Amino acid sequence: MKELMLGNKAVARGMYEAGVTFISSYPGTPSTEITEEAAKYSEIDCEWAPNEKVALEAAHGATLGGVRAACAMKHVGLNVAADPLFTISYQGVNAGLVICVADDPGMHSSQNEQDSRHYARAAKVPMLEPADSEEARVFTKRAFELSEKYNTPVFIRMCTRIAHSQSVVEPEEREAFPQVPYQKDPTKVMMTANSRNAHVRVEQRTKDLIALAENTELNRVEMGDTHIGVITSSTSYQYAREVFGERASVLKLGMVWPLPEQLIRDFAAKVETLYVLEELDPFIEEHCRKLGIRVHGKDVFPICGEFSQNLVRACLGFDEPQTLSVSDAIPGRPPVMCAGCPHRGVFYVLHKKKLMVYGDIGCYTLGAIAPLNAMDLNVCMGASCSGLHGFNKAMGAAGEKNSVGVIGDSTFIHSGITGITEIAYNMSNSTVIILDNSITGMTGHQQNPTTGKNLRGDPAGKVDLEALCHAVGIRRVRVVDPYDLAAVEAAVTEELAAEEPSVIISRRPCVMIRGMKHQPPIQVDSARCVGCRQCMQIGCPAISFREKKARIDPTLCIGCRVCGQMCRFSALPGREVTEA
Amino acid sequence: MSTKNIMIVGVGGQGTLLASKLLGDVLLRQGYDVKVSEVHGMSQRGGSVVTYVRYGEKVYSPVIDRGEADVILSFEKLEAARWLSWLKPEGLMITNTQEMEPMPVITGAAAYPENLVEKMRAAGARVMAKDFLAIAMEAGSPRTVNVALIGCLSTSFAEIPEEDWLAAIDRIVPEKFRDLNKKAFALGRQAGQKEDR
Ligand SMILES: Cc1ncc(C[n+]2csc(CCOP(=O)(O)OP(=O)(O)O)c2C)c(N)n1
Fold first, then answer.
1. What is the pLDDT of residue A580?
2. Ligand 1: which atom is nearest the Cα of residue A109?
3. Range of the domain at B189
4. Which tens digit of pLDDT belongs to each residue from A434-490?
């Protein structure tokens, strides 16, 4: 039966139908729902790995064990998984292995806009790219067949608009996939002659895949008017059809690496003016140029940002629709830390102490936004520890006494552990704050190795953060409650003063965790409120200012009482000692 | 039939997802090709959120662009003004009159513009503005603002009978909250029928 299905859910459906039994992933927008939706099928063992490298290695290991397996990650996750990727390409698989990578043109929720197709070419791994949910389902199944036939991992490349759009899907039954027996094979050890032979095999495999690309059903020609031809894929295909309708001919590529040669030449010969319409880098365009075909691409359409039908129209000089507008400036509505977010208190203290803050990736990156303004920079997951170490090596005491790294629990497990090991081993006097909110918040509340629960919420192993920090050689490890501003401030002051590295663990579960008990909302004592706005320094969305007084929105306030600790006039109730 | 475009805009946490789910479900069962597109992630944390719903014989692009929306259903007044330029000049803006201050307004860095409904009308837009929060309260819970708005929107579809909307609520809303939401739907629908546009 026809069903409206999210692109990511359709990938999960494709995996289910392909008989997949193991998925190991690390969350990251816009890829997260692939694994979450797959976990709803009891036949598939789904897990959150500590990071993408581990996830890919685990999934590959499962295919050696003879089952179809997959992993999903966002584009930057593939950087982390790149090391196993390149050698798994040589190594091959024992049963199908599919790697889903979701790019984020427009950076709706990412720190960069990298184009994953370069990885397909660099690692010589074929890449399929669906343009809607039904293709996401069908291509995923096809990817497993190709993986086994060509003995290679296969990429499914998603982008935000395909991953997070629902379109019509017609699900099919699950196929049984009998487990392939494991056989020891001495050529699987990747060194010397084995690696050299494997590389030769990979080069031949690419030639075979190019032959496939010439006549696979994954690539298709839709002939219309021949004045204009468009070579395109993914969501750009949808924009092309939206803008041109039948007034152009289209070569829609479902396999974006390796690319066909003859198919493109033949198509180019049939049309007068040829465009390549692709988001991000000129990947298909450069391939066409290499073939000696004249095309318009990035001379007309931008490299940066996401496309849309109006953008395509504007670039081509077509008329754009008329619009209405009001002249007032409309204030922005940036995302904010939730009311009661335990990160808030820590950032208030860092702001107050005017420290250099080496940030990281998570909800707490919102600590960079006004009024907290308490983050100097961030780079990638884990850089808050290792980057801070380098900064302090350069700055000496001037850095060490005035800087901290802040990192979330999930991010710390992902790649902060090696960073604090660097601090301990190479002895910079650095201070790292682990914001342990017992969840992977930013990506929508996934469990992680510090929470004691697995992906399905069942009891699982649990990392002891204090013991871990001690074990890598950090002797000063202390835990604070971020709802207690004085305690946070004392901890930061003392650890910066200490003549050795420290880790401060700020521990309070995220208020949005399902089933969390909240305190009743607080009220402003208007007789006492003098309207000094001091409580608004913490940037809580539950506090606003009306008729020269602070006002608390009772539907948002969860009674954390951090604001009360800001008030010098006792207009807001202060801290009550409650158990964390 | 050419593709029709409906946008649902609001503030993260207001329940726009349920609204688009109901709408998508109803349209799919009318036999249309449908695409529903939203961005997850950051936007959940009190940020501005938008969902695009497109339907017709064959839908290509998953997004709605400036000047293309037939109807915008706005959960909050400032958001209506923010997305106004996405409306077709002859389109319909349905907005909740509720105001939610964004952080720049809370911190005093910006002001919440006044008289937005009048200004949108002056710009040439057809605007239906109602206090859907009050309607939701009347139904029994402020959380039903989303379904009250859908009730109002349903009056823009002369061809879709009321039963189809109610059936979608039956399929999608958990039993515990069904009656509450049906009440909100009915009140929202009444409000839509009463309004002269
Ligand atoms: C390499 C990489 N993988 C995944 C992501 C996506 N991502 C961004 S923040 C985040 C999780 C942050 O969780 P945590 O560190 O616990 O902080 P919280 O959001 O809970 O405050 C993830 C997985 C990323 N940015 N980079």
1. 45
2. 8
3. 4-194
4. 999 999 999 999 999 999 999 999 999 999 999 999 999 999 999 999 999 999 999
- Nearest CB to A331: which of B41, B84, B105? B105
Say if A450 is an interface residue toward chain B (CB within 8 Å).
no
Residues within 6 Å of ligand 1 by CB: A 26-28, 74, 76-77, 80, 361-364, 381, 408-411, 435, 437, 439-443
DSSP output for A238-301: HHHHHHHTTSSEEEE-SEEESPPSHHHHHHHHH-SEEEEE-SSS-HHHHHHHHTT---BSTTTS
Å from CA of A442 to ligand 1 middle: 6
Using a CB–CB cutoff of 8 Å, tell me whether A338 touches chain B: yes
Is the alpha carbon torsion for A242, A246, A249, A252 positive or negative? positive
Give ipTM to 2 decimals. Answer: 0.95
Nearest to B37 among A161, A334, A369 (CB): A161
> What's the pTM?
0.96
Distance from residue A509's CA to the centre of ligand 1 (Å): 16
Q: Output the residue whose Cα is nearest ligand 1's atom 21.
A: A363
Please tell me the total count of domains within chain B.
Answer: 1
> Can you tell me the mean pLDDT for A548-576?
93
**Residue of A4, A224, A276 whose CA lies nearest to A117:** A276
Q: How far does the CA of residue B170 sit from the closest CA of chain A (Å)?
A: 17
* Spatial distance between the Cα atoms of A486 and A89, rounded to a whole number of angstroms: 54
Q: Which CATH number does the domain housing residue B14 bear?
A: 3.40.920.10
Report CA(A28)–ligand 1 centroid distance (Å): 7
Residues of B in Cβ contact (< 8 Å) with A536:
106-108
Residues sharing a CB contact under 8 Å with residue A178, sequence separation 6 or more, in sequence order? none
Per-residue pLDDT of chain B (197 residues; tens, 9 = 90+): 789 999 999 998 888 999 999 999 999 999 999 999 987 655 566 889 999 999 999 999 999 999 999 999 999 999 999 999 999 999 999 999 999 989 898 888 899 999 999 999 999 999 999 999 999 999 999 999 999 999 999 999 999 999 999 999 999 999 999 999 999 999 999 999 986 55
Nearest CA-CA partner of A571 in A538, A522, A537 = A522
Ligand 1, residues A432, A433, A442, A511: which to mutate, most atoms within 8 A of Cβ?
A: A442
Residue pLDDT, tens place only, A389-436: 999 999 999 999 999 999 999 999 999 999 999 999 999 999 999 999
Please tell me whether residue A478 adopts helix, strand or coil conformation. strand
Nearest CA to ligand 1 atom 15: A408
* Residues of A whose CB is below 8 A from B92: none
Give me the sign of the Cα torsion angle B24, B189, B69, B30.
positive
- Model pLDDT, residue B41: 57
Q: Are A552 and A522 in contact (CB under 8 A)?
A: yes
- Answer yes or no: are the C-beta atoms of B93 and B72 closer than 8 Å: yes
Domains of chain A: 3-179+190-215 (3.40.50.970), 219-316 (3.40.50.920), 343-507 (3.40.50.970), 517-580 (3.30.70.20)
